[in-house]
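Sample log: Peroxisomal carnitine O-octanoyltransferase.
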Amino acid sequence: MTNQVSEFPTERTFQYQHSLPPLPVPSLEGSLAKYLDAVRPFATEEEYHVTAAVVKRFGEGIGKDLHQKLLQRARTRRNWLEEWWLDAAYLELRYPSQLNVNFGGPAPYLEHCWPPTEGVQLQRTSISMWHTLQYWDLLRTERLDPHKAGNVVLDMDQFRMLFCTCKVPGVTKDTIINYFKTESEGPCPSHVVVMCKGRFFSFDAVCDGHILTPPELLRQLTHVKQCCEGEPAGDGVAALTSEERTLWAKAREYLIGIDPANKTILETIQSSLFVVSLDDAKPYATSENYTPVTREALTGDPTIRWGDKSYNSLSFADGTFGSNCDHAPYDAMVLVTQGYYVDQQLKATDGKWKGSETVRPMPLPEELVFTVDDRVRSDVAHAKQQHLCVCLQTQDLQVVCYAFTSFGKAAIKQRKLHPDTFIQLALQLAYYRQHGRLGSCYETAMTRRFYHGRTETMRPCTLEAQNWCHTMLLPAASVSVRRKALLLAFNKHNKLMAEAQNGKGFDRHLLGLYLIAKEEGLPMPDLFTDPLYSKSGGGGNFTLSTSLVGYTTVLGAVAPMVHHGYGFFYRIGDDRIVASCTAWKSSRETDAETLFQNLVTSLHEMLHLATTAQL
């Protein structure tokens, strides 16, 4: 996910899109065998035999028919999963998006040139915006090199969704509107929306064909801030985007109905490059503890962020930054890549603007004022109240986000071990130590080598991982025995991850079979109602919801999938591992702080084992 930028590129950003292979459909026999292997760690002998019989009947009966229908669907689509995934995972969901769907996190700049500092919010925001606009221009002109895994070209379609993209609520299903165009495709919106104290402002980020410089952006931001200081807060219409989706859809329809100008304002927000939120909060995160800004990014003021926008850039009063983004149009690696680009540019310039201070004549930001009546005010008040209830709930959400600085990728690779697998097995051991059993675990696997590929589920909780964790907690187990168990767990994990990335995972396949049965009104097959299906994580019931955010400086966070579970995002640097861990305080079973400390213990134990065993 590095940003290779070429002034005169030999490869354009999106040039390989039409030559990517279609997403394959795995074999039914292979998927069912992998599924049985995945449920084994959570079953007694009796439970396993019952499930094996269910799987056998499915494979010989209704499963065959469903699989054939899936193959038929795949013949007419380059990605048989794409539409289903968008609908089932995002657009058909009715609960509020901002905490349940969106992802957010801290910007990494506080690690070097921009530590928390008051009085610099607007100046830093202008520079951050300028670098973000440069990234938009790289995509517009296709000067960002296509991503590759070795020599394998990866799908870049999600990068079209970072800018000028918004989700629009529907009564039964939402939609995604994307206004982005490359230079060769035609004109693209170039305005940004700035939100401050419940009010909206918009201005064009391009003047006479050139992106506004930081001094020019600062002038625009200063005008917005001056308009809002000492004045009553705006109507806070943005809070409606934090509502339950059907309620928001109906409120939006009414908003448009009372004044057609409201529709124009909505379209201005939807089509904007991105939203900048000038937030009065002061999280005061540090390079060792990112918890405050991570929490604020996930649960902050709903009146100054547009929850349906693909990118809300959050600027805090203490000079730190974060983001909150709708997950539907793209996966986190898109924002990670953009955030890393900005971070590297800031490092290279020490966070300063070294160009011209001249400010060209240009229009000041225009305030976007919705026409509202008592019903809209009531809807906004209800949305704020619901968000307050969610915030009370999020006080129940325990968030820890720390840097482990004893070692990182360099030390792990020196011992010829895969860093991501190392972290995943350390997490399994930490959970096992804390709870006395393994937890069903989801890890994101990337399928971008296929047309419009996004993700597949990789399940790290294997029999081999279970055996290794058990062995590590046996005082009598020798280094040799532990080493052998560790190697088996590593090899199994690496094998499953490679298969998932190459279109040979099984979770998305089973989802496809489930959705065909549902669409055709067939009785739900026993495989999906069998207790081990959900116990092993199926149907979105994973105890550990995890994802490697990358080997950059960017991190994010998500809430747990289930009440008795954990959310666990992490990034791996050369000399550090930074992890955000979430849990519900109301669950008597879980504690994120303890899990992180157990993770630290596991990391040290594993490196010691790898060193003494000379793996």
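Observation: The mean pLDDT is 94.
Observation: The first helix runs from residue 28 to 39.
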